[in-house]
Amino acid sequence: MADKHECDNGCKIVSIPQVATIEEIKDEIVDVKTFYLNIDDAGVREKFRIRSGQFIMCTVFGAGEFAVSLPPSPENDRFHISVRQVGKVTRALHALQVGDKVGIRGPFGNGFPFEDIKGKNVVYVAGGIGLIPLRSSIVHVLQNRKDFGRIILIYGARSPKDLMYQYNIDEWLKIDGFETYITIDSPAPGWTGETGFVHNLIPKANVPVDNTVAFVCGPPVMFNSVINVLMEQGLSDDCIISTLERHMKCGIGKCQHCAIGRTLVCTDGPVYTYRQIKTLGEQI
Amino acid sequence: MYLIKKSEVLNIARELAKDHLVYGPVTDEATGQVLFDSLDDPGKADLGAPIPTIPPKNVVFPQMECIYSYRYDKNSRAVDIRQVNAVKPKALFGLRSCDLEGMRILDRFFLGQEFVDDFYLNNRKKTFIVTNTCIAPFAQCFCVCTDSGPSAKEGFDLNLTELGDEYLVEAGSDRGKALAEKLGLAKADGSYAAKKTAAVDRAMDLFTGFAVENKAWVSRVTNRVTTGFIKEDVWEYIGDQCFECGACTFVCPSCSCFNIEDVNKNDGSTERLRSWDSCSYEGYSKMAGDHNPRKPVEDRRNKRFFCKLSYSQSKKYLRPGCVGCGRCAWVCPGDIGLPNVVTYIRRETTK
Q: Is the Cβ of A15 closer than 8 Å to some Cβ of chain B?
């Protein structure tokens, strides 16, 4: 599924975290902040390479470690993570200031296909903070625009103030040939765009079926309704790709907390096709 | 092959104690329990004791260990991460073959997959292993059904087999051979191979007396678990009897799930502790924000038996995940030790 990485595990930070500095903090939406990070050790920083769809284990010193997906593109993008505060460790992360240190291990996981989907139409369907892991692939594909067919983004959130990466969306809307559909759940004052759930926009976007791959990420309810519509449209289940979240402790396939079906999300995933997801036998 | 008198066999442990931390089976006088523990006096090792209550996995994979510690100074923003120093070489004396197979499963899992677990490697490297052939099975054993006994085939440095007044000593490695030579053990002639085979055959014959028919069904059930031909209500029946205590996973020689927790100390440093975890616990797969994809107990129970009996796991471990020690049947307050689960699934599939 994933493209081959030029180096094997040699350039990954496997056991002991590397220290990184928070260079900038950006408020995104309620409870979500973006942290721009820079690994302190220059030698490690040089070798640190990611693929879209991978994740890192991030240590908040004194609080713990958590798995977090990577929104930056592997090419020419500042390294950052976007995190919603939802538990003990992420709350501690949100309390940190510019200049504070965190620990990084990784990157882990298979990542989104990139070479395999060249020449195809690419459809991104995201709900809420589901845009975070997809951002990496979106930016990467836009950087290699000529290698792909139609590129479509269908993105929905509860309200205008719940739209992630507003500054990126503003840019994307201006890109010629990048078909973007942004929607919010119900009408809001000042909102002139689409309203309603994302899956209702799929027919409107005239999503292609042949030679097409769709990336879907969002809350389980949204995920299921989007899958239904895409399948109705005639997309095959092995052309629908998503990334799963699980409770993780080690990131390297040892602790088994992320076991799902016969696979481990940390080493066999987190990117799965819908065909694979159907065989896992667990909730999303 | 070498020979050593029964009265002198503990000299092997004493020799190892010179440059190893020696662990071996000891009977606790107060409770009568057999423990596999570090030996202050190697002469206390009890080779005739039944298999220990807890498998020796805690020697290489401690129930709780600090994998590294760190200190973060909020003012200067300096981070100091300290790794645990190299540990003293260990020797496991009198390991039963089922427990050796359990450890070999852990080796393949921690060291042989995509990533190597450095912390396990640190505990495991330089470990000298002396196994002890079971010349008679114990009441709960079924290693003959899981191909892990009664005698160890490989993976040991020395293997002992009791033959009357003496022990046959087989070297499984160069350093095992070196130790036997150093102790000046008498060479055993070729006839001893047949004597050992006879002793092992006798032990296997003893299994037929009490290894009830269900135990022979392990491979059949592996097939069923792998192909998924097991009805939901069988798992529900098994799940209904689970107390979610986690005991089966803790006493299992091949269970290796762990949790990692950061614990802040009074001196301002933080220890990153890893400890045994159990897939039977409800919070095992719960994510921040309380989403838990794996809720019902039967859903979590079939994960464990999938781990022990499925073909996909066997491919990873190069053998079934169960080593037939029978400890889970010992400790389960319900009635779902692995042999019973095999029975339940067998009954279902033969209906």
A: yes
